[in-house]
Amino acid sequence: MPVLQRPDRRRFILETPAGEAELTYHIRADGGMDLLHTFVPEKARGGTIASDLVRAAVEYAKGQGLKMVATCPYVQSWLVRHPEEQAYFIP
Asked: What are the residue ranges spanned by the domains of the chain?
């Protein structure tokens, strides 16, 4: 299933058989996109769902010209594995 953005809920979501996975975000006053929290239902963990959520958020922010902040610990660890995306994040 594709990742959907829900701007009304400030979330990227992906429906799984185990329930809804999500990445919550906040658009800051300075125009940055703060990636706050990633959640994947326990029975859906261990695959690429969390990474798919982060990738969708990164692609959205890049398309909108937004810099990102990685408040979420998962997003921070994702950045270590994807150094090519670090230029789009505010340290």
From this structure: 4-88
Q: What is the pTM of this model?
A: 0.94
Along the 91 residues of the chain, how does pLDDT read in single tens digits?
799 999 999 999 999 999 999 999 999 998 899 999 999 999 999 999 999 999 999 999 999 999 999 999 999 999 999 999 999 999 8
- Report the Cα 31 to chain-centroid distance in Å: 16
Query: Using CA atoms, how far apart are residues 4 and 26, in angstroms rounded to an integer?
Result: 16
Domain 4-88 of CATH type 1.10.3880.10: no
**In sequence order, what E strands does the chain have?**
4-6, 11-16, 19-27, 33-39, 68-70
User: With contact defined as beta carbons under 8 Å apart, do 33 and 9 qualify?
Assistant: no
